[in-house]
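Write out the bound-state structure for iron/sulfur cluster.
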Amino acid sequence: MPDAHLKVFRGRPGEPSEFVDFDVPVEEGMVVLDALHWIQGHRAPDLAVRWNCKAAKCGSCGAEVNGRPSLTCKTRLSDFDLDEPITVEPMRAFPLIKDLVTDVSWNYAVNRTITPFTPPENLPQEQWRWQQRDVDRVQEFRKCIECFLCQDVCHVLRNHETERAFMGPRFLIRVASLEMHPIDQVDRRQYLKDSGGIGYCNITKCCTEVCPEHIKITDNGIIPLKERVADAYYDPLQWAWRKLRGREATGAGTELPVLPAPVGAPPPPAAATTPTDATATESAPAQTAEPAAAGTGPARPPRRVRTTKSARQTAGRKDAARAPRGRRDGGAG
Ligand code: SF4
Ligand code: SF4
Ligand code: FES
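---
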């Protein structure tokens, strides 16, 4: 089998960074994470890579492979044209820690702002009853492995476009799993509208495309939530029914944490230093990289920069059109 040519992002915030070339011998069934482990074992023992299960279930190994947010343990090298280089870089929506590892702790802070499952106070659990179709509907959302690939691909988070915070698709489906639970007593629609920023989602469906659990995030989660919010706040009959029913609204006025600007995010591979072989690359001191290719500053405008509607739409189209390069099937990882 031919070698695979990987261009792997290397760097830390505040230091020069670059894409480094590695030729990796390919064996049948290898995935991108195997190639990264080979690089760690034979060429760059200090390459930072986060992983755990190697079974597409822990959600740790997310990175951008040829520009597409992917689980590296689920992305086979045989899916690519090995005559073309394969770029591997960290998730661009989140602050860089080192090499392929990013700080995703913002997501956990957002998660803590969601009111958890709240059953009726006076109904013992053995008396809870609901239909199988309700179980199935919520079960889909509970398949989430918190890889945050959907958060990474979402242009609202990725481009830091909004003036206010946006919780992102992963947490919209968590809210969906609670709102659609027939036993839950809490109304989170005001939270979705005012704090979660559900209105910023323009249903591009990029999140659904990259989800390794094949959750229909937009069709089954976000769109029904948008309809519920529209019913509650723009339909007078529904508004009156909600008042009569007296369902408790929670989360109003909750401030979401601000996603930090991704300082140290990688520059585009084309602008990076591209030595011809791994040996030459590793022996070259990182400080010799051109400042323009160093990628030490923020790659995008910081959060809270307001953009025009047309600019947002353009950015959305760019993200939606970002197909994997050199991938044979063009499918999800
Ligand atoms: S549909 Fe598009 S805008 Fe909405 S959450 Fe998913 S990726 Fe973001
Ligand atoms: S919804 Fe899918 S893509 Fe998003 S965090 Fe969960 S498993 Fe990952
Ligand atoms: S290593 Fe667990 S999902 Fe890839």
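---
The CA atoms of residues 21 and 280 lie 9 Å apart.
The chain has two domains: 4-103+263-300, 105-249.
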